[in-house]
Fold this sequence. Notes:
InterPro entries: WAK_GUB. 13% of the residues lie in helices and 27% in strands. It contains 2 helices and 13 strands. The strands form 4 sheets. Strands 3-4-5-6-13-8 form a 6-stranded antiparallel beta sheet, with no helix packed on it. Strand 3 (50-52) and strand 4 form a beta hairpin. The longest helix is centred in the N-terminal third of the chain and has 19 residues, at 2-20. The model is unreliable at 7-19 (pLDDT under 50).
Amino acid sequence: xxxxxxxxxxxxxxxxxxxxxxxxxxxxxxxxxxxxxxxxxxxxxxxxxxxxxxxxxxxxxxxxxxxxxxxxxxxxxxxxxxxxxxxxxxxxxxxxxxxxxxxxxxxxxxxxxxxxxxxxxxxxxxxxxxxxxxxxxxxxxxxxxxxxxxxxxxxxxxxxxxxxxxxxxxxxxxxxxxxxxxxxxxxxxxxxxxxxxxxxxxxxxxx
Length: 207
Ligand SMILES: *[C@@H]1O[C@H](CO)[C@@H](O)[C@H](O)[C@H]1NC(C)=O
Ligand SMILES: *[C@@H]1O[C@H](CO)[C@@H](O)[C@H](O)[C@H]1NC(C)=O
Ligand SMILES: *[C@@H]1O[C@H](CO)[C@@H](O)[C@H](O)[C@H]1NC(C)=O
């Protein structure tokens, strides 16, 4: 009796497993490793990402799509492209949505490998534990990088997004800071030319 039961359970597991573990097709030259899922027929639907006209994209909780630059399935990490800073302003394209916000119910969070720079901040940011000094690396971004020109001479700061902070958002707003960018796998002492832009997200295992 027990053997039959185990056999039935095993069979149903195998059956289930084959549909469950189907890997999604590539998108825009990127592989879509399990459990990431671009449609209902593959991957694990809790790990939904999007293949929009040949671009692999991550959808935020507030409906903004961010381009996925690379995926590391072993480390369970992916890197998305930071939003652009609109020309001649110091506004990121996701300012109307208050920056990047991840759905806390989903298995993704922002990793601790990110150095975030905030621009055009109001004075009350100075009370927070960010580096808003004259030698913060955000000054170099304003001076050297074309995209940062619109933020020149605004109050800016940088910080390491570590485990002491919320891992589900990078917030911008009018009257707070109105733009941001982010470096991944870079140290503040690295030269501007070697900076790698990106926001690294990680996902929890599906089991
Ligand atoms: C701010 O960052 C700069 C550049 O990394 C560093 O030299 C400086 O010591 C930092 N200041 C504070 C107060 O942490
Ligand atoms: C900086 O932010 C303020 C509101 O907080 C806004 O009025 C101003 O236009 C912003 N500056 C730039 C250069 O975008
Ligand atoms: C983010 O997710 C990873 C993987 O599930 C987990 O190990 C880590 O503790 C999470 N970080 C935070 C700050 O919640």
